[in-house]
Design brief:
489 residues; alpha/beta; 9-stranded mixed sheet; 6-stranded parallel sheet; 19 helices; binds 6-O-phosphono-alpha-D-glucopyranose; transferase; alpha,alpha-trehalose-phosphate synthase (UDP-forming); alpha,alpha-trehalose-phosphate synthase (UDP-forming) activity; glycosyltransferase; trehalose-phosphatase activity
Length: 489
């Protein structure tokens, strides 16, 4: 075990999330190659120095045989990761079904799936059963590795049933739960058939965290209205047991981006991109290809802008990076074809022999290429219909110290609460408003751009991912101590 500066063993933090921060590729029967993804959570937790972190989650691959499972567990152990093995059927029912087809759309105000609601109540129920079974499998792995004094931090909508499973196993375990998506208004949430069971389970945690104050408030209202529990300024109380509920807005590791911009390979990328798009303003969208991101609406707004501003047609380009995601879920497949159709139509309509107005890519970019792209962008267009936070907006701001480009941001992204004063906020459903904002952004004076950028840059570089993680984890540690003190008195 790791030691701290005084030679003491460090306290351990078990981070439980549906997906481990690695991608695993099988090389042979007993050999795996692993790629650690340096996403938001990973860099946030690298900053939590006083704890020794272990990750527990699904490796994203089906490993039916024991030899493969053993080999993968061994390879993962070197990266401080512990796998939860889920078979194909459970992935289908729990991950594709209940998580991505029920909870995800509901939490983003897209409602429950119609077909399931009308015709296949049994399949809805079997998906929920699989969800609970999967959560119990995560709990079993946590319990096998739990040591007294560990702090357990559960993440996201995949694991709402986990806090209860963990407390059933050991009520002294310190358990936190954080939601990375919005928590919707209780009027939306209460349509969920399993609404009470999930709320009660989450309330078994000691600390429950959300990105914004609004999400926390919606959650407390759901608990008071659906369960009849009491909402207090501290959280939710039932029969003397308090669950702390609060907002902990996440951030990014902004230094990682500002440092990358100094690298020669990134500067080469920047030069290439400048040359490639010389004489044109660059607009950028970077999203997972998900219905919550409002990609069709964004592209239609861009079309409207081109329609109404003929003089801009050969002077602006929209680069849309659409990272494929959850490709087994039919809704996502439909969205892909819909977006391709719209992009094709608009490029056909406004393209010339030598240039098209929209470059749409169905893939992710490596980190350095992404930083370069952020740096050369004049206007970032982030028009999520709903979004827990949206860290792309933070990453863009972190890379704009030179250019001081404009951020057009949906008012329905959590980030609108923190970057609202610097960004142009829009209602993504209002295509005319977004089209007008594009015009305003492209014509904005350098003075105004500077002022807006200063505000956002100051926020992004001070409200970092590390501070987010530290704040949550220390609150989790302290709250439990307080609760124990109270019961002892
Ligand atoms: C959102 C969720 C995460 C999830 C990510 C990627 O950000 O809040 O929990 O990991 O999307 O989605 P995926 O389904 O590929 O894990």
């Amino acid at each position: 075990a790791e030691q701290d500066a005084t030679g003491q063993h460090k306290q351990r933090l078990l981070v439980v999330a549906n997906r481990l921060p690695v991608s695993a590729v099988r090389r042979a029967e007993d050999s795996w190659s692993l790629d650690i993804s340096a996403g938001g959570l990973v860099s946030a937790l690298l900053g939590v120095k006083e704890f020794e972190t272990r990750w527990i989650g699904w490796a994203g691959v089906n490993v039916p045989d024991e030899t493969g499972q053993r080999a993968l567990a061994k390879a993962l152990a070197e990266k401080r990761c512990i796998p939860v093995f889920l078979d194909e059927e459970i992935v289908h029912q729990y991950y594709n079904g209940y998580c991505n087809n029920v909870l995800w759309p509901l939490f983003h105000y897209l409602g429950l799936p119609q077909e399931d609601r009308l015709a296949t109540t049994r399949s809805f129920q079997s998906q929920f059963d699989a969800y609970k079974r999967a959560n119990q499998m995560f709990a079993d792995v946590v319990s096998q590795h739990y040591e007294e004094g560990d702090v357990v931090w559960c993440h996201d909508y995949h694991l709402m049933f986990l806090p209860k499973c963990l407390k059933d196993y050991n009520h002294k375990m310190k358990v936190g739960w954080f939601l990375h998506t919005p928590f919707p208004s209780s009027e939306i949430y209460r349509t969920l058939p399993s609404r009470s069971e999930l709320l009660r389970s989450v309330l078994a945690a000691d600390v429950v965290g959300f990105h914004t104050y609004d999400y926390a408030r919606h959650f407390v209202s759901a608990c008071t209205r659906i369960l009849g529990f009491e909402g207090t300024p501290e959280g939710v109380e039932d029969q003397g047991k308090l669950t702390r509920v609060a907002a902990f807005p996440i951030g990014i590791d902004s230094d990682r981006f500002t440092r990358a911009l100094e690298l020669p390979q990134v500067q080469n990328h920047v030069r290439d991109l400048r040359e490639r798009f010389a004489g044109r303003k660059v607009m950028l969208g970077v999203d997972r290809l998900d219905m919550i991101k409002g990609i069709p609406q964004k592209i239609l707004a861009f079309e409207k802008f081109l329609e109404e501003n003929p003089s801009w047609r050969d002077k602006v380009v929209l680069l849309q990076i659409a990272v494929p995601t959850r490709t087994d879920v039919p809704e996502y497949q439909k969205l892909t074809s819909q977006v391709h159709e719209i992009v094709g139509r608009i490029n056909g309509r406004f393209g010339t022999l030598t240039a098209v107005p929209i470059h749409h890519l169905d893939r992710s970019l490596d980190f350095h290429a992404l930083c370069a792209l952020y740096a050369v962008t004049d206007v970032a267009l982030i028009t999520s219909l709903r979004d827990g936070m949206n860290l792309v907006s933070y990453e863009f701001v972190a890379c704009q110290e030179q250019k001081k480009g404009v951020l057009i941001l949906s008012e329905f992204a959590g980030a609108a609460q923190s970057l609202g004063a610097g960004a142009l906020l829009v209602n993504p459903w209002n295509i005319t408003e977004v089209a007008n904002s594009i015009g305003y952004a492209l014509n904005m004076s350098p003075d105004e751009r500077e002022k807006r950028h200063r505000h956002n840059f100051a926020h992004v570089t001070t409200h970092t991912a590390q501070i987010w993680a530290e704040t949550f984890v220390s609150e989790l540690n302290d709250t439990v101590v307080e609760a124990q003190l109270r019961t002892r008195q």
